[in-house]
Structure formats: structure tokens, C-alpha cells
Design brief:
The chain has 18 helices and 30 strands. The chain is an alpha/beta fold. Bound molecules: adenosine-5'-triphosphate. InterPro entries: AAA+_ATPase, AAA_lid_NorR, FHA_dom, Homeodomain-like_sf, HTH_Fis, P-loop_NTPase, Sigma_54_int, Sigma_54_int_dom_ATP-bd_2.
């Protein structure tokens, strides 16, 4: 059991069976000194691999995972027990006698939701493993046997369908070579040759049950048989010329596969989606993957041009075509000859211009304003809109015939909030790019920040996320991006301002317990690293922390082997 008391943290080994009295009393087996702990505060009973805690009518009570203990409460590995202000975390590393729980999909998801909440609240590691059978039902019995014999009692597993087993691994951080994860994977891979295995960790790959399941499943499905693949390695980076896109959400991966197929044709494509969702990138992908990629890619934002100038911008004009047309000018459509024109916000085009555009599309010929002759035109159109063009067409706000032509192939990009798997990946990538561009030290996102980002609704979608990371890199001073560095609209915190007259005095703000524990851990780990002169195994031993957990936390807290924070300049 890891005990965090005041400034110190230590490991208290639990017996295999018997009782452990916790309190300030000299007779206590686990003797604590903090005044918030009663003399005889609580008792642990250990029997047959089961650990239970009972509160002994203590003054400040005993809490497990934030809930007050009433009567005798069974503990699972990773449970956080609070005694007054002292925090203890149970860690069972030996195999328990009880087999793992094999659950039906619904209870398994319910259990996962609980584990996610615990992981986030107390900053405890949690990994979610998916095993995809090589064929539905094949080796299923052998896999079931592994679940029954090999898993800890704190772990849970279950078949989500005929071909996919989901395993919840509390207290497993998903580190390379991690003992717990490695053992499970080996046992499963031996029982089921040809299985694909993938895992996701909380909060790095997701802050809710559904996202973690999707992430671990996509990692498994995209990997080679017999090997384990991390969700963080399963994102796709698409290079489209100078543009680089990150895709991880299965819906987005499928959409881009569709775009690639459509690119091979000459059909116009209509890209639909909220602002900032990535419509221009999708349009560029159509161009990049088409036979026109060597030709120009011209963008025109139809909403940004004053109504009187739209026609000349699109079709071009001859000298003297209208007042102010001092010289002839090639329109955007003509500039795109041999390539692709991207008409952003096409729904904003005035109706008369829509009629002219339709004619150009049908005849593949264009006439500049003020000119009689027609020029032939070889372009492909990709249009985009955040509006419902079909409804606009029905209501007469958009020409139906043009809508049918532009929307021959429609691609709908989901808003960022509907692809939670991508939020943390994009945030990390944008933050790294922004730090690099500013020439500043790398920053990492704390677990709490990942949680905040995953709960925000992102009305400005990917663009808003990119801007936010640019801001954080420019404004932040430390190496860890914490929620208080983010604007109140994102964190949901009330904006600054004088309290209304007559309102009660504001209490001194308190940090969440998880944040205090993290600060304490960081301090203790830094001291230990310095004392051990950077030898991680020694440092871990000095504060009684398992080396795996120590390494995981070093990474999470951005610590270097010299005890400083990542990127700290040497004196
Ligand atoms: N999958 C992605 N990976 C990396 N960057 C992305 C991704 N999707 C969008 N972006 C970035 O987000 C920003 C907004 O994207 P984009 O301009 O394509 O959105 P949009 O939907 O066309 O916006 P608008 O509706 O305002 O025209 C750009 O900086 C773009 O590069």
C-alpha cells in the first residue's frame, strides 16, 4: 500500500492474511502521525486475496474513492483510501485467488465508466486492452480460460461481440515492457494465435469509456496479428503535399478513404461541416489525390467577397467592363484551369451568380465580364458549406439544379466533439508545433487539461483547438499545460469580475486533492532523483515506489532523470 502523509510517501507492505490496524495509536500496525487521523482510525482485513476496510468510528471518517465507508468495504487494486488528510493507495501485485470477472457488455461498460472516473479523479493509470479474434469464435474458449486463470481480481474482461474481447486493467499504465500488460498479452497471444491486440490508456487516449474502447479497438484492428499495438501509434498522419493531417477517429479514417476514391473520378464534391472542422483540407485532399494534382488548387471564400464583386472574382473581366475595371483580370475559375477550384461557403453565392456558375459547369466554357468570346475551361469544382444546402434549395435560397450538380458526391465532416479520440492527439500535435515555431521548450498537457479539453464542446472545432494551443504555447511559462492556463470559456470557470453586492465572501480557493497529491509526488520524485544522481531505480526505491510507476509518473510529470522538469536548462 502506498501511503501519502503530509510531506512523506512510503510503501506499507500488507500481510497475505490477517488484520492491519491503522491510526495514531502506538499499537497501530500502520502508524500515522497526522492529527487528522484518529488513534484507532480504520482496520484492514486480508483473507484469501480479498482486502476489506472498516472505519473504527474515526473522527474524520474513512473514504474509498471519495465515498465514505459504511460498514466493511471490499477494496480493489488501485482504490484510493482517505483517512483524514492521509491518502493510501492499494496496490496488489500478486495474483489473487479469485478469477477475473467476465462480464456481459453492459455491466463491463458500466465498470469501465467507474474505472475511468477513478482514474481521472485520483490520477491513477488505467489501460483498456482489446483482443480481436482472427475469426469469429475461433479460440474463444482458450481465451476464456486465460481470463479465468491469469487475471487479477481487480481486472475485468468480457466479450463485446463474437470477435472482440475487452479487458480492463486498472493500475496499468501501458508503458513499453510493462510487466502486467506484457504478461496478459503473452498469455492471450499464446491462447489465440493470430489474434490482434491493441490498448488505449486513460487519459492520454481518451477520457471516457466509449473513446477508450474505440481507441483500443482501432489499435487492435489496424495492427499485425500476434502483436500488441498502442492506440497512440494507431493514428494516421496523412501527408498531402505541404499539409499534414492527423486522423484517428474511425469515421474520419473511413471518410478520407472515401475522399481518395472520389478523387479518382471527375465528380464535383460537396464538403459539409461546421466551421473549422477541416473542410478546406478535405477539398485539398480531393485535388491532391486526383489526376489534376500537378495543376493549380484555387480557393475562393464566397462569403468573404462583397456581393457586387463576386461575379468578376469568379469569371474575371475585361478592361472597362465596369467602373473601376482599369485592366483585364483573370477570374478564379479561369485561374484553376487544369486543376481544382475550391468554393468555400458556396451557399452564400447570390442567386444570379449561381445561374451563371451552373452554365459554366454544364458547358465547360466561360465568358469574362465585358467580353463576348467564350474560353474553354477544364476545372473540377469542390464546394463547401456549413449550411444545409438541401434545405436551402427546397426553400428557394439556393438553386436546386446547382445543388444537384455540386452535391453529386457529398462528404460530411463530423464536428470535433463527435471525434473525441482526436482531441488529445491534435492538441498534443498543435502544442508541439506551436512550441517549435516559437523556439520554446516543449510543453506537455496534464491529465486534468486533457480532461477539460475532452469535455469542451469546441464550437470552432479544429481551428479553435489549434488557436488555443498557439495561445498556450505563447502565454504559458511552465512546461506543463494545466487547466488554469486555459481561458474560462474552455474550463467552464466563471469569468473574473466583482462579486455581486451582498454576496457572501468568497472562500479561499482550494486545489483539488488530486492536484495536491500530484504536486507532492512531483516534489518527492525530484528530491529522490537528485539524491540518486539520476539513477531511476535507486530513486524509485528511495521513496518506495515501483519502478514502473516511477517511470510512468516521470513521463506524466515531465521530469528528467536529473530531477528537473523536461527542458530545464542546465545551470
Ligand atoms: N485532421 C487534421 N489534422 C491537422 N490539422 C487539421 C485537421 N483538420 C483541420 N486541421 C486544421 O484546422 C484548421 C481549420 O481547418 P480548415 O480551414 O480546413 O477548416 P474549414 O472547415 O475549412 O473552416 P471554415 O469553415 O472556416 O472554412 C486548419 O489550420 C487546418 O489545417
Amino acid at each position: 500500500m502506498l501511503v501519502l502523509e503530509g510531506e512523506s510517501s512510503f510503501r506499507f507492505p500488507l500481510p497475505a492474511s490477517g488484520m492491519v490496524l491503522i491510526g495514531r495509536d502506538v499499537e497501530a500496525d500502520l502508524r500515522l502521525r497526522d492529527d487528522s487521523v484518529s488513534r484507532r482510525h480504520a482496520r484492514l482485513t486480508l483473507h484469501g486475496g480479498e482486502v476489506r476496510v472498516i472505519d473504527l468510528d474515526s473522527h474524520n471518517g474513512t473514504l474509498v474513492n471519495g465515498r465514505r465507508v459504511e460498514g466493511s468495504h471490499r477494496l480493489a487494486s488501485g482504490d484510493v483510501v482517505t483517512l483524514g488528510t492521509v491518502v493510501a493507495v492499494l496496490r496488489t501485485s500478486t495474483r489473487a485467488a479469485a478469477p477475473a470477472h467476465t462480464l456481459e457488455p453492459e455491466p463491463l461498460m458500466e465498470r469501465l465508466r467507474m474505472e475511468v472516473e477513478r482514474s481521472l479523479r485520483y490520477s491513477r493509470p488505467l489501460a483498456v486492452l482489446t483482443l480481436a479474434l482472427p475469426e469469429s469464435g475461433l479460440h474463444r474458449e482458450a481465451v476464456d480460460n486465460v481470463c479465468a486463470t491469469e487475471f487479477h481480481s481487480a481486472e475485468a474482461a468480457g466479450w463485446m461481440d463474437d470477435g472482440h474481447l475487452l479487458v480492463l486493467l486498472p493500475e496499468v499504465a501501458g508503458e513499453t515492457g510493462e510487466e502486467d500488460l506484457g504478461e496478459r498479452v503473452e498469455a492471450l497471444a499464446v491462447a489465440c494465435p493470430g489474434a490482434r491486440l491493441g490498448y488505449a490508456v486513460c487519459p492520454t487516449d481518451g477520457c471516457d469509456a466509449d473513446t477508450l474502447v474505440t481507441a483500443s479497438r482501432s489499435a487492435a484492428e489496424g495492427g499485425p496479428p500476434g502483436l500488441l499495438r498502442a492506440a497512440s501509434d494507431s493514428a494516421t498522419r496523412l501527408s498531402l503535399g505541404e499539409r499534414s493531417l492527423l486522423l484517428a477517429d474511425p469515421a474520419m479514417v473511413q471518410l478520407y478513404a472515401l475522399i481518395r476514391r472520389l478523387a479518382a473520378s471527375e465528380l464535383p464534391v460537396l464538403v459539409n461541416g461546421e466551421t473549422g472542422v477541416g473542410k478546406e483540407n478535405a477539398a485539398f485532399a480531393v485535388h491532391h489525390w486526383s489526376r489534376r494534382s500537378a495543376g493549380p488548387f484555387i480557393t475562393l471564400n464566397c462569403a468573404a467577397i462583397p456581393e457586387g464583386l463576386v461575379e468578376s472574382e469568379l469569371f474575371g473581366h475585361e478592361k472597362g467592363a465596369f467602373t473601376g475595371a482599369a485592366a483585364p483580370r483573370t477570374g478564379h475559375l479561369e485561374s484553376a484551369h487544369g486543376g481544382t477550384i475550391f468554393l468555400d461557403e458556396v451557399g452564400e453565392l447570390p442567386l444570379p451568380v449561381q445561374a451563371k456558375l451552373l452554365r459554366v459547369l454544364e458547358t465547360k466554357r466561360i465568358t469574362r465580364l465585358g467580353e463576348a468570346r467564350e474560353r474553354s475551361l477544364d476545372i473540377r469544382i469542390v464546394a463547401a458549406t456549413h449550411r444545409n444546402l438541401e434545405a436551402d434549395a427546397q426553400a428557394g435560397r439556393f438553386r436546386q439544379d446547382l445543388y444537384f450538380r455540386l452535391g453529386a458526391a457529398t462528404v460530411l465532416l463530423p464536428p470535433l466533439r463527435e471525434r473525441p479520440r482526436e482531441i488529445s492527439l491534435l492538441a498534443r500535435s498543435f502544442l508541439a508545433q506551436a512550441c517549435h515555431a516559437l523556439g520554446r521548450r516543449e510543453m506537455i498537457l496534464s491529465a486534468d487539461t486533457l480532461q477539460v479539453l475532452s469535455h469542451y464542446r469546441w464550437p470552432g472545432n479544429v481551428r479553435e483547438l489549434r488557436n488555443l494551443m498557439d495561445f498556450a504555447a505563447a502565454a504559458g511559462t511552465g512546461d506543463v499545460l494545466e487547466p488554469h492556463h486555459l481561458p474560462p470559456r474552455v474550463t467552464g470557470a466563471p469569468t473574473a469580475g466583482a462579486p455581486p453586492v451582498g454576496s457572501p465572501p468568497t472562500p479561499t480557493p482550494r486545489k483539488p486533492l488530486s492536484e495536491e497529491i500530484r504536486e507532492l509526488e512531483r516534489r518527492r520524485m525530484e528530491e529522490a532523483l537528485q539524491e540518486a544522481e539520476g539513477v531511476q531505480s535507486h530513486a524509485a526505491a528511495l521513496i518506495g515506489m515501483p519502478i514502473r510507476t516511477f517511470r510512468f509518473k516521470m513521463k506524466q510529470l515531465g521530469l528528467t532523470a536529473r530531477g528537473g522538469q523536461r527542458g530545464t536548462p542546465s545551470p
